[in-house]
């Protein structure tokens, strides 16, 4: 049995994680952390029934008391770097779904995790379909190097562009460079600020935030007289849970920091 502490246990993603861990015979909910529901029961908040585990608000103290095998973190971009450092310092393996960590921060966490003989896994997207969307995009990019990304999310998302869109752009850029191909230069001369989106590795990313969406992305490739669009839609946050459970079970297998669910597939 792996004992799992969920950070952000009352959030949209965290409460699904509590449920997924509760329902998996090889995993056990060890505790939950949030800011607003301190003192309430982790199971009651996640909708799985009373578990006799109280929600706490101090990650470091909870790690000292509960000594979980794995922490799963779905909190906010503002606190994730410190959360990760706290887990690694305590020698506890971590699975991170929270977006917003920079490449430099990931590099620092990798070194710290190696030093402390701890494992940390980060995935900007835990859905299998999204991982395949990125893989297919890297296969198309050498043949159709002109590409733009539209990502669409619910209006409570705090960061833009999404971590998935940034990761997709990074992978497409690497695939184009490896193939020695370049996109056509952008000929736009005049535009309103933001009209061409954010540029990541020279790839425009357009972020839409509206109620009704969960997590969606379209990767648009343009060629002479043809277009190819790869599209992925997460219709329910449950779509992320098989990936989260897989990562919880596999995180200890790789020392240091591992980035991207494709490493476990
Ligand atoms: P959410 O519903 O707003 O939940 C955020 C959670 O973080 C809540 O439990 C909240 O507690 C807690 N929190 C807020 N401030 C905190 C702080 N200072 N310290 C510790 N905990 C704090 O957000 P969500 O939709 O679940 O998303 C969470 C993260 O996961 C976001 O970064 C999002 O982009 C990412 N995400 C990743 C994936 C993926 O596949 N990797 C998929 C979806 C979302 P209170 O409620 O008590 O304030």
From TrEMBL:
GO biological process: diaminopimelate biosynthetic process; lysine biosynthetic process via diaminopimelate
Localization: Cytoplasm
KW ATP-binding (keyword) present: no
Entry superkingdom: Bacteria
EC number(s) reported in the record: 1.17.1.8
GO cellular component, one term: cytosol
Binding-site list for (S)-2,3,4,5-tetrahydrodipicolinate: 154, 163-164
Location of the active site: 153, 157
Name of the protein this chain belongs to: 4-hydroxy-tetrahydrodipicolinate reductase
